[in-house]
Design a protein that fits this description.
By secondary structure, the chain is of the alpha+beta class. The protein is 61% helix and 14% strand. Strand 1, helix 7 and strand 2 form a beta-alpha-beta unit.
């Protein structure tokens, strides 16, 4: 896929620069901050991805928002993506950079979705279980979804491990639909 290839190319280039400058973790934190803002502020994300907004306007907005919070290297990297009209792939590029850093440190990213936020000891148990099954330390992102009713889901890359009540009800529903219907009587 084109987007995957673009994200791979740009993330690898940034990682090589970060290694040369011994700033892999610094760039990681800065890119995470940028991504969190893109996800939180939908209008910002829309402006950055909108081909109708001029590149110089996008860069000025980003300079105002992030100029004092991220290094010039990371800011100029984002500007390069804008100059090359690759804004649609910015988030994926950030994700690929983060995945590469995680892989180098034997860490796996997992999203844990729960109906309510859990106690810390429960979060640690999830980390331990992920380590037991993958052999990697888990970097967890916790989020809340009241529609789960109870329980939780663990999302690792494209895999969903569903321990929610909603998920269990869906399984029961599917099983009931697959039962053969016979005439009684």
């Amino acid at each position: 896929m084109k987007g995957e290839s673009i994200a791979e190319h740009y993330s690898q280039a940034l990682l090589e620069i970060a290694k040369e400058k011994d700033k892999v973790d610094e760039y990681f934190d800065e890119l995470r901050y940028v991504k969190e803002n893109l996800l939180t502020f939908k209008r910002l994300n829309h402006i950055i991805k909108n081909p109708g907004v001029a590149a110089h306007v996008k860069k000025e907005i980003l300079r105002e928002l992030f100029g004092d919070r991220i290094s010039p290297d990371v800011l100029h990297f984002i500007f390069l993506i804008i100059d090359k009209n690759r804004e649609l792939y910015l988030e994926k590029t950030i994700d690929r950079y983060m995945e590469k850093v995680f892989d180098s440190k034997n860490i796996i990213q997992a999203d844990v979705v729960m109906s309510n936020f859990p106690p810390l000891d429960f979060v640690e148990k999830i980390r331990e279980k992920i380590f037991e099954s993958t052999g990697k330390k888990a970097e967890l992102t916790l989020s809340r979804d009241p529609n789960l009713i109870g329980g939780f889901q663990i999302i690792i890359k494209d895999r969903i491990i569903d321990y929610s009540i909603r998920g269990q009800l869906e399984k029961i529903k599917q099983e009931l639909h697959s039962l053969p219907i016979t005439d009684v009587g």
